Amino acid sequence: DSGVTQTPKHLITATGQRVTLRCSPRSGDLSVYWYQQSLDQGLQFLIQYYNGEERAKGNILERFSAQQFPDLHSELNLSSLELGDSALYFCASSAPGQGNEQFFGPGTRLTVL
Amino acid sequence: GENVEQHPSTLSVQEGDSAVIKCTYSDSASNYFPWYKQELGKRPQLIIDIRSNVGEKKDQRIAVTLNKTAKHFSLHITETQPEDSAVYFCAASPNRGGKSTFGDGTTLTVKP
Fold first, then answer.
1. Mean pLDDT over residues B53-61, rounded?
2. Chain B interface, mutation test: which of A32, A43, A45, A50, most B Cβ atoms within 10 Å?
3. Which of A26, A79, B5, B80 is deepest in the core (most CB within 10 A)?
4. CB-count exposure of residue B34 (10 Å: 0-12, 13-18, 19+)
5. Which residues of A touch B34 (CB under 8 A)?
6. DSSP 8-state class, residue B48
7. Dmax over Cα atoms in chain B, in whole Å?
């Protein structure tokens, strides 16, 4: 157990819908990262937050948005869902400072039908 | 931005043999290089990491080497076991912020 929690574990929805994925980082970690992993694919970095502020942006679609709240939990919102959005979405957190290990949550498996 | 290339994409070895996975990176500002192991359906987990002030690091059967001049780093697994079968990801993290750029992964299969 990494100490990072993600809910829900599984999500099945239809095209065109909107979903929210939730992540709670490890206690004391200020950074939260979101990744998308499609079947047999690598980890695609989506976005990073640090202490409530957006720190870095990757290949995140305009239909996707995220935020980090004052209690440091983060939510990833996916809207106008398409079949190709079906993937495993991981959240990771790391401690303050440069170049620290990222601890990954168990992931949310999203299936868009 | 940073670009990380990882080779090979698949690697099959016999139990007891060694396995080597190589990564190159582009941003000379990167100074932290972790390796993650991801078993099927599970989260990536850190297995070893190295910082730019170190050339080699070992942890039992696993070692990582770093060549900052050539901008490449490698993962070495000796005496491989079937439970080493997984996808391995390398990553590079720059000086500022914590964002890591991941390689595309190597699927390692260790045949008994």
1. 90
2. A43
3. B80
4. buried
5. 101-102
6. E
7. 43
